[in-house]
Amino acid sequence: MTSMTQDDVRVAAERLVHFHEQFAPLFGKVQAQDHAYTYLQGLLACPERKSIEPIALNVGTGQVSGLQKFINIAPWQSDDVQADIQATFVEELVPSATGTPVGVVGVLDESAFAKKGTESVGVARQHNGRLGKEDNCQVGVFLIGVTPAGIALLDHQLYLPESWYEGDDAAERRAKVHVPEGLPFRTKPQIAAELVRSVAVLGVVDLDWITADEDYGKNGALLDELERLEQRYVLEVPTTTTIWTVDPAGCVPEPSSRGRRPTRPTREAVRSVAAVGAGLPAGAWRRIQVGAGATGPLVFEFAAVRVWAVRHRKPGPPIWLVVRRSLEATPAVKYYISNAGAETPLETLAVVACRRHRVEDFFEDCKSSLGMAQYETRSWIGWHHHMTLVGLAHLFVTLTQRDLKKKSRS
User: How many domains, the chain?
Assistant: First the structure.
């Protein structure tokens, strides 16, 4: 974070008062508004663990039970606060993307939160991406908005594993932690599609692109939904992903004098993305700077070729295959697909693909500085309340840092 003088700290404290006032009515009664302010203060500055009791004792007035109720059962709606976060994102950060080749990018990703026991909503033995193995944890799916001026949490939802729907006591178990009645099981890609759809329906933020890692890029139903929403994407896919290298419409065999007329194309022109990438000529590659890294410009080599998707084992639409390789002697290679138009420049596809790492910045900042993983609530309501307030605190920090940078340049 930009170094702050005592004057900067004073101004930031005053800014938090005004920032909170913008959102305060969404929390309901005055007491709930005060709890929201206390919790924001705690996420930003609590010297101990940033969970309810330390926040109440160190930052608030010591009302532990009142703050617990505010997080765990209070009737304020996370969706309403998220909508205002989106509006502030549009007002404060989106203008920095106006006129840029890429515009506003939405990044989909999941994050795991290690938990003990079996009582917390959604907890199960499941993949923890940070650890790279199965662990007892909760997993949330997040949609982050990315602009040149900063990033913000646009929406989020907790994933409930299938084990939370299995057994005679499953409904009782969900009700105990306030899971909405009738909420069906959904995969993480299904939740991701719902997040994008919700942002589109709300109509506050216009996302120019969506990007995500291969766990989402390989999901045909998610791709179908993004295309139904007319949402452009650049999504990473596994090396084993297959595509048609020529138009499958031209691969249907000629009819013979006997039998039915063929309708399905042969698969002779189907290749894996890895095979297509390996066969690209030297002249297909371009070295492109996609951003700034910790030690200097972030540069990779990229190539792109028009191909046809294999979707649900059938011919899909024409798409871009984008291949990225690092500059080492033994390069790391990644593959992406995009539904962008045929006229889209390679540089644009490359930059969008590499915007995905910004979600890692978001998780790192929120977990290391804003108490994202330090919550102790067990309920569905509490989890979403906490994550929404973390997103609000992150937005405050983002806007404060932006203004400090402006001040330092003036």
Answer: 2
